[in-house]
């Protein structure tokens, strides 16, 4: 056996050095390249944040225009990719479709898979950021049985995405700027979160030299789980299951019961032992969306507000420092925007793509980069001799 330190869940091991995102979990602080998340979400737009994550600085006016143009240039996907979608069952989970289709991009865009070529890396990054909304919207359209809607490049990133999801060819589509702005904020809030499970997956996949499309597909697969990106879907399903404020105590009791595997979805975080700063902005955005849509008495929102109140005052949650996380409010907002719960994690993947790429790019451009190869503490049998099957 080797002399290695066992650290299950990597709670005390840094896997890399990074200059992209800073989190102080005790204080509830999240900075991208030094900028607080609330300032970016309230004052910036998603593509600006993409630029910041990728290149380290906010773009000048000219740089922003150029970047927006270059991303927009890549919004279409190869027409033949439609056949990928139609190969899936209609009832396929959109995340299953995402894993497959995004992985397949490497079979369509050969001229941006050579990771040793800086230009190709850049083109792959732009392609992924640009095509993810198109692919996510196609997954949604396929899911609901409606025709695919092509991107419209004179719209901004989030308005274009909402249109690709909710426009139909038979009637005029009127976008709502308040909802598009909310969508944009949701994307900003999900853009990066340092070395979480899916980002670490992307880095590990990339450390072997795999192409960026394959790496992002690996990230999507990891994000799918309910302990990670799948929590927004799980949180909303839980609110629906609770159904009424009267039933909250029953679920709180279950969450506290050591013999019951049930957890309050949307609560707790590996790093934040304080209010997740993103959850606060998400809560505000949620109310903006509900106001805009004139949704006053949403039963799920009532349950959510009451649940939050109880959890923030209950000794169990206080002692374990379990605060609402971003997924707690994003679910209600996305539902109000018109998305089915199965799309929630897809939207997370769409937004997180830039974080994954920025982290992948940082790793590839690090001259000290080596293949990620964790060691283990072997606990199996000692050496023994093979016995033929008829002697066993
Ligand atoms: N409800 C009830 N108890 C909980 C919860 C919860 N949501 N989360 C943690 N605990 C308890 C847990 O039982 C444990 O108690 P004890 O120390 O008595 O055994 C203690 O708190 C510490 O939990 P842990 O599982 O050791 O903490 P972790 O850092 O390994 O897990 C987590 C973090 C986010 C996976 C977990 O809090 C959880 O499962 N939350 C619900 C799912 C969720 O909302 N996930 C989204 C995370 S944020 C966005 C993202 O990453 O995608």
TrEMBL record:
Pathway: Carbohydrate metabolism; tricarboxylic acid cycle; isocitrate from oxaloacetate: step 1/2. The active site is at 269, 327. Gene3D superfamilies: 2.20.28.60, Citrate Synthase, domain 1, Cytochrome P450-Terp, domain 2. It catalyses: oxaloacetate + acetyl-CoA + H2O = citrate + CoA + H(+). GO terms for molecular function: citrate synthase activity. PANTHER family: CITRATE SYNTHASE. This is Citrate synthase. It comes from Ahrensia marina. The lineage of its organism: Bacteria, Pseudomonadati, Pseudomonadota, Alphaproteobacteria, Hyphomicrobiales. The gene is gltA.
